[in-house]
Amino acid sequence: MSLWGKTDALASAPKFLSTDTNANRNIDKDNAFFVDTTEAAVPSNRAKGIKTPGWVLYKEFGAGRKYVETLVPMKMTAVAAGDTGVTNNTATEDAVVADRQITISAQPANRSVVAGATAAFSVTAAAVPTSALSYQWQVQQSGTGVWANVPNGTGATAATYTTPVTVVSVTPPDTTNGTNGDKYRVIVSASGATLTSNAATLTVTAV
User: Is 17 in contact with 23 (CB distance < 8 Å)?
Assistant: First the structure.
């Protein structure tokens, strides 16, 4: 099924557009084109102001005057070799989905534990359109200012990560063994999208 629920030659046109020809540049179907990622990169199209893949209104008025408006930004590769024009307006090219977006509804929270215990950090996320999510937890050891993938613990690539046994720094910042003040975040990924969570701080107190 095409994006707009039609299968005719005008399947690409958003439903709010008029069927009138050249009556209004803002609503005419004749001025609506689907631009895939290949077409958006073509120099001649970019020179016309068409730079974003998706549904675009484009109208030339002569004397170098033109009207360009992106209606629905999307991502889609070319469906055939040589498909680099700006007037492709077919149901085949219309069978796409909107750019995927990731949202985080519950950010990792700060944790306080006694030395010798572990700490768990969690995230709740979703992708729209729906897609499987992948996770990569990262740590910034206190005093280093550098983020790196967690080297130990459990759940490094899951929604919940649990640290190894925590240690209080003997001489702060003890970036070799101490874990007090370490920060944790997670990179959430889905097909075509990534989002990094807020950072959460681990506080470790002596027994």
Answer: no
CA distance 83 to 79: 7
**Which of 74, 67, 80, 68 lies closest to 94, judged by CA?**
74
Alpha-carbon distance of 76 to 97, in angstroms, equals 8
Among the listed residues 31, 71, 73, 28, the one whose alpha carbon sits nearest the alpha carbon of residue 53: 73
Q: What does the pLDDT look like over 1-59, one tens digit per residue? A: 223 333 334 444 565 666 655 555 556 666 777 777 777 777 777 777 877 777 777 77
- Given a cut of 60, whether residue 128 has pLDDT beyond it is yes
Q: What pairing do the DSSP bridges indicate for beta strands 124-128 and 160-162?
A: unpaired
Q: Which amino acid is at 5?
A: G
Say which residue, 57 or 133, is predicted with more confidence.
Answer: 133
Architecture of 101-205 per CATH? Sandwich (2.60)
Residue extents of the structural domains in the chain: 1-96, 101-205
CA distance 80 to 51: 20
Reported pTM = 0.55
Closest CA to 193 of 131, 138, 148: 131
